[in-house]
Amino acid sequence: MRSFVSTDDIRSWGGILQGQHFVSQPNWRDQLPRSIAEARDAGQSLLAIGLGRSYGDSGLNPGGAIVDMTALDRIISFDPATGLLRAEAGLSFADILDLFVRRGFFLPVTPGTRFVTLGGAIANDVHGKNHHRAGTIGRWVRRIGLLRSDGTEIELRDDDQTGLFAATIGGLGLTGLITWAEIELMRIPSALMDVETLPFANVDEFFAVAAESEDSADYTVAWVDCLAKGNALGRGLFTRGRHAPGGTKLARVGKPKLTVPFSMPSFVLNNLSIGLFNSLYFYRGRRAAGKATTPYLPYFYPLDSIGHWNRIYGRRGMYQYQSVVPPVVARDATTEMLKAISKAGEGSFLAVLKTFGEKTSPGLLSFPQAGTTLALDFPNRGQLTLDLLSRLDDIVREAGGRLYPAKDGRISAAMFRAGYPAWEAFAQHVDPVFSSAFWRRISE
Ligand SMILES: Cc1cc2nc3c(=O)[nH]c(=O)nc-3n(C[C@H](O)[C@H](O)[C@H](O)COP(=O)(O)OP(=O)(O)OC[C@H]3O[C@@H](n4cnc5c(N)ncnc54)[C@H](O)[C@@H]3O)c2cc1C
Fold first, then answer.
1. For labelling alongside 212, which of 140, 206, 259, 429 has CA 20 to 30 A away?
2. Residue limits of the FAD-binding PCMH-type domain (predicted)?
3. How far is 88 from 82, CA to CA, in rounded Å?
4. What separation in Å is there between the alpha carbon of 170 and the centre of ligand 1?
5. What is the pLDDT of residues 68-101, one digit of tens each?
6. Nearest atom of ligand 1 to the alpha carbon of 309
């Protein structure tokens, strides 16, 4: 494996999982077949990585080979009449925004960080605050270049009948290397966002505001104080936004202003500090509630302004937990989850609640489905945290919901299979050389 180097530097974004990998970082697409052949001929399993923003083990392949796609970041073509952008899979959403916002185009769907690659976003079929309007990114992908381990490169189209397109969207990198992709950008009138923040007092109020906002707002999301108890259980701040008309002020992408230079000691984050933060955040947010016009960057990507923010969780790292539960049981299941968290005293800063709409995701393993999604991160406190997460698993499974693989590093095979009944159909499209720690855990 001449183009690979051995390293133990690759760590999940949650910081809990790490492993020894053989890594190759090609600069040109025509080098990819050689990397694949070297890994295959050496009997190594292979996985692509982008910017490593997946929290758990779906982006790790310990003991095996990794192709780092981030140097493959060229634009291949762009048609301003249709908004169709064809680019190499390592191009980041940050670069797309930097180039295209000033030309009046925006990503049709974006996650809460812009430091993701096109290939990584497709492999997790990412969603954003506009799921109820736009669905997942996969709905906006028109073509994919996929390189398989036998050396064949296939152009997959969105009307593909073989099932390989549907398996590759949200396919966790297991169907082969996405070398390039074509997505449809959307037109925007300005680089500004009209945003309204509304405090809500409890879970019932959240569902009322969410239902009322679906028709009028392009983007909706809520932050929840998950340590609040009793009548205040589920209190939080709801934001709804849309691209502001007319304005031409351009927000330039800069480097993060603040950086967390090293992993914080674990005493910095304890129940007291998380509880204090949540209360302060809620009361400050409530005071400042109302309408505002803001640049798009802080609206879509508040965490991106703090470089390496994941280091505040210290060396032990954190667990992300993102579930979705169907609409009919959403209120009860969400209430039960918040009660379990509040009772356990295991707080989360970043508790995000959102309703997903009816737009069907094109991927066999796409996470979003109609219902309510709750995303949380918990500092890793060992067994205490794992016990709480198992309790949450029970609630989600009973509700007929599922968890997001991009945020997971621990669910059982049974839990995954219950949530993703198409997994067996998907497995038929997995390339025999491609694998990940996540896939081995849930398929073997
Ligand atoms: C702060 C933060 C906020 C987030 N918010 C959201 C959100 O709102 N919605 C959401 O959906 N997700 C969200 N995420 C998760 C993130 O969007 C996904 O994990 C995304 O896929 C990461 O992209 P990446 O380029 O870092 O990919 P990686 O994490 O490096 O890889 C992700 C997967 O893609 C595969 N892959 C990467 N490149 C290729 C390729 N070229 N060919 C084939 N497979 C490939 C990898 O094998 C892996 O399975 C968030 C993450 C963070 C850190």
1. 140
2. 15-188
3. 19
4. 10
5. 999 999 999 999 999 999 999 999 999 999 999 9
6. 1
Residue of 17, 96, 113 with the most ligand 1 atoms within 8 Å of its CB, for mutation: 113
Cβ atoms within 10 Å of 212's Cβ, excluding its own = 13
Q: How many residues does the chain have?
A: 444
Alpha helical stretches, state H, 50-200: 93-100, 118-123, 131-134, 164-168
Give strand pairing partners of 295: 192
What's 244's DSSP letter? P
Residue in 141, 154, 148 with CA at minimum distance from that of residue 177 = 148
**CA gap 222, 206 in Å, rounded:** 8
Q: Which residues contact 394 (CB under 8 A, 6 or more apart)?
A: none
Answer whether CATH 3.30.70.2520 is correct for domain 192-411.
yes
pLDDT digits (tens, 9 = 90+) for 267-325: 556 666 666 677 777 777 777 778 889 999 999 998 887 777 777 777 889 999 999 99
What is the bridge-based pairing of β-strands 21-24 and 5-7?
antiparallel
Using DSSP's 3-state secondary structure scheme, residue 348 falls into: coil
Q: Please tell me if the CB atom of residue 135 comes closer than 6 angstroms to any atom of ligand 1.
A: no
Query: Which of 50, 236, 243, 52 is closest to 130 using CA atoms?
Result: 243
Rounded distance between C-alpha atoms, residue 143 and residue 155, angstroms: 7
Residue 257: exposed, middle, or buried by beta-carbon count in 10 A (0-12, 13-18, 19+)? exposed
The amino acid sitting at 95 is: D
Q: How far apart are CA 128 and CA 188, in angstroms?
A: 16
Q: Which CATH architecture has domain 75-188?
A: 2-Layer Sandwich (3.30)
Distance CA 284, CA 294 (A): 18
Cβ neighbourhood burial of 254 (10 Å; 0-12, 13-18, 19+): exposed
Q: Do domains 75-188 and 192-411 have the same CATH topology?
A: no
**Is ligand 1 within 6 A of the CB of residue 66?**
no
**Which ligand 1 atom is the nearest neighbour of the CA of 368?**
11
Tens of pLDDT, residues 6-26: 998 898 999 888 889 999 999
